[in-house]
Amino acid sequence: MIEINELHKSYQTGANSLHVLKGINFSVKEGEMVSIMGSSGSGKSTFLNILGMLDEADEGTYFLDGKPIRNLNEKVAAKYRNQFLGFIFQSFNLINYKTALDNVALPLYYQGVKRAERTEKAMHYLEKVGLSQWATHLPNQLSGGQKQRVAIARALASDPKVLLADEPTGALDTKTSYEVMELIQKINDEGKTILLVTHEDDIAHMTKRIVNLKDGLIIDDSIVTQVRADEAQRKAAAHV
Amino acid sequence: MFKKDRWIEIIEVFNANPFRTFLTAFGVFWGIFILVVLLALTTGLRNGVSKDFGDFATNSMFMWGQGTSKPYKGLPKGRRVQFKLEDAAVLKDKLPQLKFVSPKGQLGGYNGANNVTRNEKTGAFTVSGDYPEYIEQQPMDITAGRFINYSDINEKRKGVVIGDGVVSSLFDVGEDPIGDYIKINGVNFMVIGTFLSPSSSGGNAEEEANTIYVPFTTFNQVFNRGDNVGWFAITAHDGTSITELKPRILEIMREQRTIDPTDERAIGNFDRSEAFGRVTGLFDILKFVGFFVGGLILASGMVGIINILLISVKERTNEIGVRRALGASPWNIRGQIIQESLTLTIISGMTGIAAGAGVIWLMNYALSQSGPVDNFANPSVNIFVVVIALIILIISGISAGLIPAVRATQMKPVDALKTE
């Protein structure tokens, strides 16, 4: 699904050049659930942004579902983002003057789907994340966990090949984090490829594979046994 | 670009911050409103003054004899210049550019002694001997009967056309003056027509209303004028300026009346076109000031809209980043912002024009209720000007949207997303 070879990225800050990614080789197969870990400054967010076509690499090759991602103009990039990728952000990034339903429907709007069909599809995904009765609420009327679930529904709405999550639980408490992770695991169970960036160990262990980044290089890439979020939650509750 | 979904998006954006939307719209509204009202006021002033200027044909001059200031061909200075009827024919013959050369005779005058009687009623009126062409130079509404015609001139008929002021002083209410007789200096004349002066205000109108027109030939015979002419009212054809013809006219007249060609004071004249030109020149300046000030106010409105759009797009940088992450193409974003600003400018501009038109309507209504006001009449705005203002609005609306829209889509989505 994702094929990356010798990926380099550096930032110009004044006279200095900051080499953030120093040659990453990485691949993901369909249906995988991968977490990218690393301390701050390790380049994990930059890496995810490049995967998401929100940023461009300086060097190296990147194939997404067999298509080369290189020097795309914004129009094509926008189309690819819409078709292939779903984004989940730490700060949710919902549009605050749109209802939950309209937020979920937004990628479909950019796909050119008709209004009636859009609403129907968006409603389906809201149901999937258990928020159908909140459809007409604005983001500021929802809790953090609910907001993130709306964002997940939005990421799913265009039926993308890959889901990219940048610290999806970073702004949530442990209980809510586990609930969100439970949802993401369920989505992966249905076959969706998921990549998530996190610096929390427990969250990383809820995926099936952990990639460790340090100073712009992959230092460790290993398959782990997935901890189911609902079990972790039960355990935590029993502990209290 | 004009799909229903896009409109729903735009209405949502406007509703997201209604106060800001209102403020943005208000700048443009105010600019175009002031522009329209200012132009209407200058037009009203111009109309009012033009109206007071009377309806006399603009491309005209008046000419009368005075005393000579230089001796010539054995004739002494201080001699009174007397125009003759034949001068009219000579002028028309030598200067075919002249449309009308109307010889005029006058008896009595404004606020003069009583000179007209009917039964036991008397009045002081201006009695004017005229040719039928005069009505072309001085338009008047014939309310009953007719104006002087050439049969009157040729047969020297004793018929008169009287103004509404004359009618109301000499006749009772409801009495029909047509066919009745009035006595001018003891001579009986039959009323053949009545007229209403079209000027509605000022001393001119009162004087016109109190005028009696007599056929020129009758006038000269009855009042013993021989073939003397009191003064000439001369109008040039459209396309030739009376001001340019004036030196030629005076030259011919000096030759006709044996006056030294350099004697500037022997013939008095009033160039209506020149006087009118001075006044219209003043109003052209006033109109320019109106455009200039109104345009500047409109420009400041536009700066306001650009400013607010820049801020609002900057505030929405994050949102634009999210939209791009979800698959919005740059033109999708740009198109939306431009359409937003265009919608806002056009709606507020139209509202401004409508409000300006409302104020013009109110002014006209007040004028029609209170009656005519000096130096102000019929304020209005040229539709062409309004269309130009609207085009300016649309162009600036597009550029007001384009600047922030291009900025918003030039940065990488990741940078837009980082902006809070």
UniProtKB/TrEMBL annotation, chain A:
<keyword id="KW-0813">Transport</keyword>
<feature type="domain" description="ABC transporter">
    <location>
        <begin position="2"/>
        <end position="240"/>
    </location>
</feature>
<dbReference type="InterPro" id="IPR003593">
    <property type="entry name" value="AAA+_ATPase"/>
</dbReference>
<dbReference type="GO" id="GO:0005524">
    <property type="term" value="F:ATP binding"/>
</dbReference>
<dbReference type="Pfam" id="PF00005">
    <property type="entry name" value="ABC_tran"/>
</dbReference>
<comment type="similarity">
    <text>Belongs to the ABC transporter superfamily. Macrolide exporter (TC 3.A.1.122) family.</text>
</comment>
<dbReference type="InterPro" id="IPR017911">
    <property type="entry name" value="MacB-like_ATP-bd"/>
</dbReference>
<keyword id="KW-1278">Translocase</keyword>
<keyword id="KW-0547">Nucleotide-binding</keyword>
<dbReference type="GO" id="GO:0098796">
    <property type="term" value="C:membrane protein complex"/>
</dbReference>
<dbReference type="InterPro" id="IPR017871">
    <property type="entry name" value="ABC_transporter-like_CS"/>
</dbReference>
<dbReference type="InterPro" id="IPR003439">
    <property type="entry name" value="ABC_transporter-like_ATP-bd"/>
</dbReference>
<keyword id="KW-0067">ATP-binding</keyword>
<protein>
    <submittedName>
        <fullName>ABC transporter ATP-binding protein</fullName>
    </submittedName>
</protein>
<dbReference type="GO" id="GO:0016887">
    <property type="term" value="F:ATP hydrolysis activity"/>
</dbReference>
<dbReference type="GO" id="GO:0022857">
    <property type="term" value="F:transmembrane transporter activity"/>
</dbReference>
<dbReference type="InterPro" id="IPR027417">
    <property type="entry name" value="P-loop_NTPase"/>
</dbReference>
TrEMBL record, chain B:
<dbReference type="GO" id="GO:0005524">
    <property type="term" value="F:ATP binding"/>
</dbReference>
<keyword id="KW-0472">Membrane</keyword>
<keyword id="KW-0547">Nucleotide-binding</keyword>
<feature type="domain" description="MacB-like periplasmic core">
    <location>
        <begin position="21"/>
        <end position="249"/>
    </location>
</feature>
<feature type="transmembrane region" description="Helical">
    <location>
        <begin position="21"/>
        <end position="41"/>
    </location>
</feature>
<dbReference type="InterPro" id="IPR050250">
    <property type="entry name" value="Macrolide_Exporter_MacB"/>
</dbReference>
<dbReference type="GO" id="GO:0022857">
    <property type="term" value="F:transmembrane transporter activity"/>
</dbReference>
<dbReference type="InterPro" id="IPR025857">
    <property type="entry name" value="MacB_PCD"/>
</dbReference>
<protein>
    <submittedName>
        <fullName>ABC transporter ATP-binding protein</fullName>
    </submittedName>
</protein>
<keyword id="KW-1133">Transmembrane helix</keyword>
<dbReference type="InterPro" id="IPR003838">
    <property type="entry name" value="ABC3_permease_C"/>
</dbReference>
<dbReference type="Pfam" id="PF12704">
    <property type="entry name" value="MacB_PCD"/>
</dbReference>
<dbReference type="Pfam" id="PF02687">
    <property type="entry name" value="FtsX"/>
</dbReference>
<feature type="transmembrane region" description="Helical">
    <location>
        <begin position="288"/>
        <end position="313"/>
    </location>
</feature>
<comment type="similarity">
    <text>Belongs to the ABC-4 integral membrane protein family.</text>
</comment>
<feature type="transmembrane region" description="Helical">
    <location>
        <begin position="383"/>
        <end position="403"/>
    </location>
</feature>
<keyword id="KW-1003">Cell membrane</keyword>
<dbReference type="GO" id="GO:0005886">
    <property type="term" value="C:plasma membrane"/>
</dbReference>
<keyword id="KW-0812">Transmembrane</keyword>
<keyword id="KW-0067">ATP-binding</keyword>
<feature type="domain" description="ABC3 transporter permease C-terminal">
    <location>
        <begin position="292"/>
        <end position="413"/>
    </location>
</feature>
<feature type="transmembrane region" description="Helical">
    <location>
        <begin position="342"/>
        <end position="363"/>
    </location>
</feature>
